[in-house]
Amino acid sequence: MNITLDFLVDTEAVGILSKITLLVMQKDFVIVERSTEKAENEAQQHLIISLTYNYDKLTDEILDNLIQELKAIDQVHDVTKNNLKNKDSLLTISNSIMKKYPDIMGSIKEYTKKLDEDGEENKAAVLYEVGEIVGKKIAVDQYRKLNVNDSIAKGLKKIVLPVISPFALAKIKDSELHVSMCPFCMGADATATVPQCDFLTGLISGLLSTKQNVEVEEVKCRAQKMPACVFLISKKY
Predict the structure, then answer these.
(1) In sequence order, which residues have a C-beta less than 8 Å from that of residue 222 and are 6 or more positions away?
(2) Helix, strand, or coil here: 16?
(3) Best CA proximity match to 138, nearest among 102, 110, 109
(4) Residue 158 has pLDDT above 70, yes or no
(5) Contacts of residue 149, Cβ cutoff 8 Å, sequence gap at least 6
(6) Coil, helix or strand for 203?
């Protein structure tokens, strides 16, 4: 079973990963994946690690004890855990989807179905986060050298459209992305009260956030009887 922990640490923290790794190993865990993300405070960053436990039975008590000891490490300001009922690591799921890109729809539908079966209350947030992780990985792997920092429209044209074109039909209107053929809400009951394309919203955010500090919101959805799914992209200041 994998567990994902999110550490808030100092950006210039020296040897922090070594300290965390040593404690994790002492508690019979193994780090299988790790990544970093920007935090709202520029002096800090998120260190995200995926752990697996060496024994069959992992209790809440064992995990909570590990988290408390991790919080006591210098330069660690907070530790939060992924409480998904399906116990899958977001990083593991994201990597699995990423490996199948652009043929990702089957994996996403299967994962969405599993979240439903497990009664995941935060399904929308989970799908958004998985999409965001996938978007960041694609942006780093394929668009690392592309400079679109000065324009949201350019980022949409040069990065987002090429990435989603294998499975969606979209066009740009100023700082909006209009998706007229969207597989993420296709077949959904057209009586939804809120937009349904959470993975795609996160994917767009992940693709652009490596270049610009942006916020992405789906303001219209075909599941709401709209002609297109509309994503509004705005800069954060």
Answers:
(1) 182, 185, 186, 188, 190, 228, 229
(2) helix
(3) 102
(4) yes
(5) 211, 212
(6) helix
H or E element at residue 155 = helix 152-155
What domains can be seen in the chain, in order of their start residue? 2-81 (3.30.70.260), 90-235 (3.30.1380.20)
CA distance 176 to 167: 18
Tell me, what's the pLDDT at 31?
Answer: 87
What is the predicted pLDDT for the residue at 86?
A: 47
Spell out a b/e string for 33-62, using b for 16 or more CB atoms within 10 Å of the CB, else e.
bbeeeebeeeebbbbbbbbebeeeebeeee
Under the banding of pLDDT at 50, 70 and 90, the label for residue 169 is: very high
Tokens encoding 97: 């989807």
Cα–Cα dist 99/116, whole Å:
23
- Distance CA(92)–CA(173), nearest Å, equals 35
